[in-house]
Every structure is written in structure tokens, then in C-alpha cells.
Amino acid sequence: MALKNKIYFEWSFIVIVITIIVTVLLFYCIYIIANNYHKISAVVGISIITLLFLYVAMRLPVYLDYNMDVIIIKHLIGKTKIPVTSIITLEKVDDNITAYSIRRFGSGGFGGYLGKFSNNILGNYTMYATQKKNLVLIKTVKQQYIISCKCYDELIGYYKDKIEGM
Fold first, then answer.
1. Residue (of 6, 4, 7) closest to 148 by Cα position
2. What distance in Å separates the CA atoms of residue 27 and residue 114, rounded to the nearest whole number?
3. Which of 50, 64, 78, 158 would staple 7 via disulfide (CB 3.0–4.6 Å)?
4. The predicted structure's pLDDT at residue 162
5. Closest Cα to residue 70, out of 164, 162, 142?
6. Which of 141, 143, 140 is nearest to 115 (CA)?
7. Structural domains counted in the chain
8. CA–CA separation, 36 vs 54, rounded Å?
9. How many helices (H) and strands (E) would you count in the chain?
10. Backbone dihedral angles phi then psi of residue 156, each to the nearest 5 degrees
11. String of b and e for 85-120 (b: at least 16 CB within 10 Å)?
12. What's the whole-model pTM score?
């Protein structure tokens, strides 16, 4: 099960700007909280901000590893494994398919477009995207994923015969 294929996620300019601004603001909040509040409220405030950073780090996609057995989305912390045998559909989708999505729990730009979303076309899905273009839908037996992938044609072509044969 050696993984041979790797595609790094590319960040859009807007995601980079949002991530930098929010990170600076959150660190500024930590500074203000630490210097102006009592110990208990400072600990609570800093803990909430730390949990936010931890959540984004656990969702932020770095690269995609894939072979004929599994697709692995490697996050800054951790990874998501999608067994190829559970994939029903793997296809490029229109870039605006997520335009009217509702964010149920996740980020709309800080570290990317990450977390749980839903809309009328797709229903519920999990998104790991660092830009709003080159989107790929991975539909499995249990759930759906939307990822941004600059080499989507390479990824889809790799699995085309295997998925159609299932």
C-alpha cells in the first residue's frame, strides 16, 4: 500500500489574506485577554482561541496522497482516509456548486473552506478546499467530500476505470 501519488493543495490569494488577518487578530485577542482579565477568564478566553486554532489545524488540508486502495487527505494535524472501494462517484464539479451552501460547522476562509456544509444540490458534505476552483466531488457510501485539486484530471483519470468497474 505504498502511496506514490501526491498532490499539494494550492491556496487562493483570498484564503491567504483571510488566514493572515484572522491569525493576527486572534493573537492580538490572546494578548489583550492575557493582560487585561483575571486569571480564570483569561484561561477560558485563551482556551477557546486555542481550540479554534486546533480545529482549523485538524481540518486544514496540506496534500492528497492516493493509490488504488485509498485516498488520504493529509491535514496539518492528522489525516482523512477514503477507501477507494467505498467511492461511488469521483468527478470534477462546477466551481460554483458550493456558492449557496450553508456552513453548518467549519471555516469559510480561515485556513480554507473547511468543515461541514450543506446545500440543495449536494445535501450534506464535508469540504477540504483551499480555493473555490478546481473542485472535485468524492461521493462514498456514507458521505460526500468536496476537495480543491489543481490536478483534478490526473486524480479522476487514475480512478476512472476502477470506479466504473465497481
1. 7
2. 21
3. 64
4. 67
5. 162
6. 143
7. 1
8. 24
9. 3, 10
10. -65, -45
11. eebeebeebeeebbeebeeeebbebbbbbbbebeee
12. 0.81
